[in-house]
Amino acid sequence: MKSIFPGPLAGRKTRLALAVAAIAVAGTWFLLRSGEPKPSEPVKAAATRPALTVSLIAPQMQDWPLALPANGNVVAWQEAVIGAEIANYRITEVRVQVGDVVKKGQVLARIASDTVASELAEATASVAELEASAVEAKSNAERARELKEKGFYSTQLNTQYQTAQNTAQARLAAARARQQGADLKMGKTGVVAPDDGVISARSATVGSLTQTGQELFRLIRGGRLEWRAEVPSADLGKVPAGAVAVLTAPGGESVKGKVRAVSPSVDPQTRNGLIYVDLPVSSAVRAGMFARGVFELARHPALTLPQSAVVQREGFAYVFRIEGEDRVAQVKVSLGRRLGERIEIVSGLDAAARVVAAGAGFLADGDVVKVVAP
Predict the structure, then answer these.
(1) What DSSP designation does 243 have?
(2) In sequence order, what are the residues at sequence separation of 6 or more whose Cβ sits closer than 8 angstroms to the Cβ of residue 216?
(3) Percent above pLDDT 70 for the chain
């Protein structure tokens, strides 16, 4: 039999069912929440990995020379221009080439001597003829003097014989001078070296005619070269005679020379003066080369590092100093002299500091590094 409930009772039952359902949903949510794992403690930050493995070094105090840099040309100490001393004669032989080392008096070239030889023979014959004439004139003069004393010759006739003797002697002297000239000319058919040295240029060719003032050879006297360094006028007084200069040749070789003289004048255009440096005989430098070098003036202590420890960034120099056990700090430094693979630290770094020896270009300020033994 169907039960029929009045309206208000039915509404209360509906609300009761909804409440029971809400309680069931809440219980289910609570059960699900209670089953989730409890949140753990915050995860510790991962350990920072080192940016680079490095070795450390300390700056070294070294006794370094004060250096004055300069540029200049390498030239011959003295270069002699050699030419023929007789003109309009043909060159028959050339005996030397550029680069040959020659001795004083060595024959460099030969000039045709047949014409000169005929001139010498003619002069020699003329001397022989005049010698005979001079002997005859002398005998006549002596005989005239004896006859005059006996009263057979007059004073005037005696004077004529004496004059003839003097004239013959004068003609003989002139002939001997011509013979000597021809003999000297014969000797000049060989072009000889005026001094020991090295042939630096040659324009003599077989078959060409010699001309007055024509250059046939150039000779570097003694093979000596010098470096003419251009130095600002303010620094000329700092370089004494005898100071050591070290040149860097274009090929990278080092050549050590000695200051011979300092120019007493200064170029009014550049305000630079020349310092003349004698160089030893070396294949590293040749006349005409441009070379850079430094003058070693004195010695002074310097705080130095290898160049591999210094980094150039944006026009400034930096090193990386170790802070604590494994962190580096970028330090700006001022640089000074350079010697070989080391460089002077003028300011910005303490002598007791330890810095990264190599690879600093890959580091940044504050990076963590792994330090190993050098």
Answers:
(1) -
(2) 82, 83, 84, 91, 108, 109, 191, 202, 203, 204, 210
(3) 86
H-state helical runs in the chain: 7-35, 114-150, 155-187
CATH T-level fold of 52-66+301-372: 2.40.420
CA 54 to chain CA centroid, nearest Å = 37
Q: Which CATH number fits domain 69-77+222-298: 1.10.10.1100, 2.40.30.170, 1.10.1740.10, 2.40.40.20?
A: 2.40.30.170
**Structure-token pair, residue 82:** 């050699």
Residues in the chain: 374
**Whole-number Å distance between alpha carbons of 366 and 360:** 12
The CA radius of gyration of the chain, in Å to the nearest whole number, is: 52
CA distance 189 to 183: 10
Q: What 8-state DSSP symbol labels residue 249?
A: -
CATH architecture of 78-112+193-221: Beta Barrel (2.40)
Determine what percent of the chain falls in helix, strand and coil, rounding each to the nearest 5. Answer: 30, 35, 35
Mind listing the pLDDT tens digit for each residue in 234-284?
A: 888 889 888 899 998 888 888 999 999 999 999 999 899 999 999 988 888
Two structure tokens written together for 342:
């080391």
Are the beta carbons of 218 and 67 closer than 8 angstroms? no
Q: Tokens 């004494």, residue?
A: 240
Distance CA 347, CA 334 (A): 5
Give me the residue spans of the domains in the chain.
52-66+301-372, 69-77+222-298, 78-112+193-221, 117-188
* Burial class (CB within 10 angstroms; exposed 0-12, middle 13-18, buried 19+) of 357: middle
pLDDT in tens, 140-176: 778 777 777 777 667 777 778 788 888 888 888 888 8
- The 10s digit of each residue's pLDDT in 87-103 is 888 999 999 999 899 99
Spatial distance between the Cα atoms of 52 and 46, rounded to a whole number of angstroms: 18
CATH no. of 117-188:
1.10.287
